[in-house]
């Protein structure tokens, strides 16, 4: 299934931050939505700011327009304020993209556990994210850092406990 671009993506002014505050707010919301949808579609969890400008999401070669580095930074800061992006370094050159927040992933994982009658079961992190049983689930192939954060959210809610096993970490669901 190919990625479906929003109508704005082929509209040249979309690639220039608008001076009017209301227009700019709507534009930034559209950019945030586009960036998260693109990352979700391609299962991207980390972005490099310098590479972002050449990424198809910020560079429409068909209309020969790209978002400036300054504008990309503004979009990333907006995503950060919304809790969908976290910087990996002080220079803000690499970031984690959370197109679904840890609590949302945790909810999906717990729904799967409950639906399959696996409450009170213990899983390794590998089994949960990459096992045959989770094939086809949205959280299949979830990167370990996000999986751990999701499980920590469930642990806070009293629905899971992260445990240390001989070969790494695991989780028990309640």
UniProtKB/TrEMBL annotation:
Keyword DNA-binding: no
Identification of the protein by name: Vacuolar protein-sorting-associated protein 25
Family: Belongs to the VPS25 family.
GO process annotations (BP): macroautophagy; protein transport to vacuole involved in ubiquitin-dependent protein catabolic process via the multivesicular body sorting pathway
PANTHER family registered for this protein in UniProt: VACUOLAR PROTEIN SORTING-ASSOCIATED PROTEIN VPS25, VACUOLAR PROTEIN-SORTING-ASSOCIATED PROTEIN 25
Cellular-component GO terms for this entry: ESCRT II complex
Keywords, in A-Z order: Cytoplasm, Protein transport, Transport
Gene3D superfamilies: Winged helix' DNA-binding domain. Chain C. Domain 1, Winged helix-like DNA-binding domain superfamily/Winged helix DNA-binding domain
Any Pfam family the entry gives: ESCRT-II
Single GO MF annotation: structural molecule activity
Encoding gene, per UniProt annotation: vps25
Superkingdom of source: Eukaryota
Subcellular localization, as worded in the UniProt entry: Cytoplasm
Secreted in keyword set: no
InterPro entries: ESCRT-II_cplx_Vps25-sub, ESCRT-II_cplx_Vps25-sub_N, WH-like_DNA-bd_sf, WH_DNA-bd_sf
Organism listed in the record: Notothenia coriiceps (black rockcod)
